[in-house]
Amino acid sequence: MSRLALPLAASLLALTGCPHEPAPQTPAPAPTQPIAAAPPIEVVETPPAETTLDHPDVPNAADVWLSMIQGAKRTLDIGHFYVSNAPGGKLEPILVAIEQAAARGVRVRLLVDMKFYLRYPESVDRLAARGVAVRKLDLRGRDGVQHAKYMVVDGSDAYVGSQNMDYRALEHIQEIGARVRVPEIAGALLRVFELDWHAAGGEPFGGATKRSLEIPARVSLGGEEVKILPTASPKDLLPEGVPWELPELLSRIDGAKRTLDVQVLTYRTKTRGGAPWTELDDALRRAAERGVRVRLLVADWSKRPASLEGLRELARVDGISIRFIVIPQSSSGFIPFARVAHAKYMVVDGKSAWIGTSNWEGDYFTVSRNVGLFIDGKAIAEKLARIFEDGFGGAYTEVLDPDRAYEPPRLE
């Protein structure tokens, strides 16, 4: 064999392998794991920093909002009370994501309250300057506000919750909301949005619809059927097919058989004008009279006289327990309008729930815009019940004593 043939033969042997040894086998690909489908509805929270109120199995609103906005492909419709940002806060990445959505061709619309826009104009104006269509709904003529907090992505993915679009609501305030990947629920919220968007633009809105809403929507979650009913307030500003929230709340309370747990920021038995308003108060009393265990958890902001009056009397009713939840101040110092429990939800008999944007005062249901979700199903109710237990029986609560004098907390 020539000197040239020797290295060539060695090279061929290296490529083909020795005839007495098996050729190396390519490893079989590892079996792929199926990707779990996103749940049709999930509870979302904001735990105040430096507290023990975080639940690892409950996603945080800042992360959920960012994911929803970044995933928008066609439309992003946002209805909020106001927008308030701060350097370094958790809202900044969300505002950037909204701007990026508009830049990549998503039609982005932002609807805020006129009265609170005048208080917090900077971030709204920033978004308007970067491709976001902005309108302000003015309900001052009826002594109301656009208080709803919700978002709809691509007409099918929606969020409703107590979080304002405020850096404090994403880090320094306890909040509860829900993400709902159900087109019928998103469609109902869009009807509310379109009605208010036209009103804010001074445009007529006929409310014509081509099809009826199939609500309550029925979905499967955890092996059970769950029903979801979207609602809105006030009664005289409802789009076609969307029910008024207050009668649904009263119906759920009157239907309670064993337990009724409610957490809200504030509770009042008079309107802001001073007229008696006891619809919810009367319903809670009826529940207690028929043997339902009623527990009410309110923020320390309810230590103000306007709320205390009704709470003191309710606390004297047998079968009703009321506690304040007091969030400690941040180690960084006092933060205005923060370090408070702002969540608004209810759990009935451990099997149905309400998550909304309304405090339990008459004006929120009769003159201001709000939205809510009623969920019939244990999967969501049990998760909210656990959150309630952690608050009601936790280190941050104190029992309301109807005979004690309370000092209102500092707000600003």
UniProtKB/TrEMBL annotation:
Residues 142-169, 337-364 form the PLD phosphodiesterase domain. GO terms for biological process: phosphorus metabolic process. One of its GO terms (molecular function) is catalytic activity. It comes from the Bacteria. This is PLD phosphodiesterase domain-containing protein. It comes from Polyangium spumosum.
